[in-house]
Amino acid sequence: MAPALEVADVFRRHGDAFRQAYAGRLGRVERRVMGAITACRTAVLGGHVEQCDACGTTRIAYNSCRNRHCPKCQGPARAEWQADRQAELLPVPYFHVVFTLPAPAAEIAFQNKAIVYAILFRSAAETLTTIAADPKHLGARIGVTAVLHTWGQNLHHHPHVHCVVPGGGPSLDRTRWVACRPGFFLPVRVLSRLFRRLFLRGLRDAYDAGTLGFFGDLAGLADPVVFAKRLDQLRQTEWVVYAKPPFGGPKHVLGYLSRYTHRVAIANSRLISLADGKVSFSWKDYRHNGKSKVMTLHAEEFIRRFLLHSLPDGFHRIRHYGFLANGARSDNLDLCRQLLAIQHASLDKGAAAEPPPLNADVSVCPRCGGPMRRIDVVPRASDHRQPFRCDTS
Fold first, then answer.
1. DSSP string for 342-367
2. What is the maximum span of the chain, computed from C-alpha positions, in angstroms?
3. Model confidence over 221-268: pLDDT tens digits?
4. pLDDT in tens, 111-122
């Protein structure tokens, strides 16, 4: 069942006013996100006519925008990604580690998204692989799948990377599998300090190369003396690295991970009401033990916060490192399986699968449950002039 209220409804009712109010500050990416979400599964994008072979029921199914920021398009994308990753799972425990930027670094990241988010990815991955390779801790070459999130529950800018890591890896000489201790991966305090050092070094290098830009309240950081003071402030700050408890093996990790890879800033299911120019939505206050609360924002402020999390064109929010890096992933996984004394055919691939998400594009008759067959094409609306590109990375 579709949610009664969607982000697209907020855009339709208040998007024009928002565009006018933010005309000088609204970028091309944000405009395209608004247009794509508004048009998603409407006549603007065209579609097709389906008919049930069993009872003859017909319906029009409009096309999806496939924009990676669209709440309605993540179910099918999640199912496809999940199927692609299923064969890569190893029969070992998996760990979930979260790297978060402190606020003085996060505001620099917001004004330099592509550059600083990339530094965040590299720093988190290098931290994990470096500490894991240290014989004092694990002495193994590990694999990392990292996913960027930029939001908190209240939609404020809160950049952090979720890393899911198999509990072990090949030894440094690639002759044996080195497993983590039961229930423990790596010391978070050691991870935190190295993460801070690597990130600040990357940020300093980017500044020295002249690739960072500053405006508004951060314009003063263009002065090298002021920027150096910001770095000193960040060196004195405790950086948060959080290791969640391990969550078992292949049966659980894939569904868990796919929920993180294909989240957007807010799901339609969290929206409660849109009335009198205000949007109300549910959120969890983790400063009060995750207590569920309701937040109400003016529609323009809701849209502004939603668009804070638009990613630059071509930026990959899911990345793989270590033995899961794209270049040699297949060979590395073969080695891992050999070291674990497990053959390809013995992997229980079915155990890792989940049912398709409820909002996946499954052609089932809403009346009798029979299969729906395409019988005609619905062209795009004639007044639609701006095509929406597929953006699924």
1. --GGGS-GGGG--PPPTTS---B-TT
2. 74
3. 999 999 999 999 999 999 999 988 766 666 677 777 777 778 899 999
4. 999 999 999 999
Q: What are phi and psi of 270, to 5 degrees?
A: -85, -15
Q: Which residues contact 339 (CB under 8 A, 6 or more apart)?
A: 170, 175, 176, 177
Average pLDDT for residues 36-50, to the nearest whole number?
90
Indicate the residue type of 117.
Y
Phi-psi region of 139 (alpha: psi -120 to 50; beta: other; left: phi over 0): left
123-127: Cβ within 8 A, 24+ apart: 123/99, 123/195, 123/198, 123/199, 123/202, 124/99, 124/161, 124/163, 124/195, 125/163, 125/319, 125/321, 125/322, 126/198, 127/99, 127/191, 127/194, 127/195, 127/198, 127/241
**Block residue for tokens 């109400």:** 296
Q: At what angle do helices 103-111 and 113-133 cross, to 10 degrees?
A: 130
Give the closest residue to 281 by CA, choosing from 4, 1, 49, 2.
Answer: 4
Task: Say if CB 233 and CB 107 are below 8 A apart.
Answer: no
Measured at the CA of 67, the angle between CA 87 and CA 117, to 5 degrees, comes to 75
Phi, psi of 133, deg, nearest 5: -75, -20
Q: Which of 358, 374, 367, 271 is nearest to 62 (CA)?
A: 374
Model confidence band, residue 386 (pLDDT cutoffs 50, 70, 90)? very low
